[in-house]
Amino acid sequence: MRNKNTKIQFLKISSLSLLITLAVLLFIVLSNPLRRSEENIKNRLLSKTPLGTQFSEVKKYIKKQGWEIDTFEDENRGFLDQREHELKVVGEKSIRASLGDYHDIQMGYKANVTVFWGFDKDSRLIDIWVWKTWDAP
Prior knowledge:
- This protein has helices at 2-30, 38-48, 55-65, and strands at residues 68-69, 79-81, 88-90, 93-104, 109-119, 125-135.
- It is of the alpha+beta class and 137 residues long.
- The chain is elongated and about 80 Å long.
- The model has no long low-confidence stretch (mean pLDDT 83).
């Protein structure tokens, strides 16, 4: 009888441990800020780099976060805004940075979050565009 009770206790503890581990992993995955909507990420970035922020300050903020500034940092041209069907260039200067990747469970692919900051001729921030892309296997 004692051996049967021990097995049942072991199964209960193992099941509980597995459930706790899965819950923690799910929490970690879902709490990744890159999983938030593009609009949510943009609003968070605007709270840290509000419109009017100088080019050099945005660049400093990006580096402080450890994000990778792409080779598309350009002090001579804005970024190509592809949010709408009609393409337009935003700003006179721009910075493009990759915030990182995550595995999109719903899509089944790796997703990347890239951000474009656009600046006017006086190097003041005028727009932010958050762009998510997915890589197919």
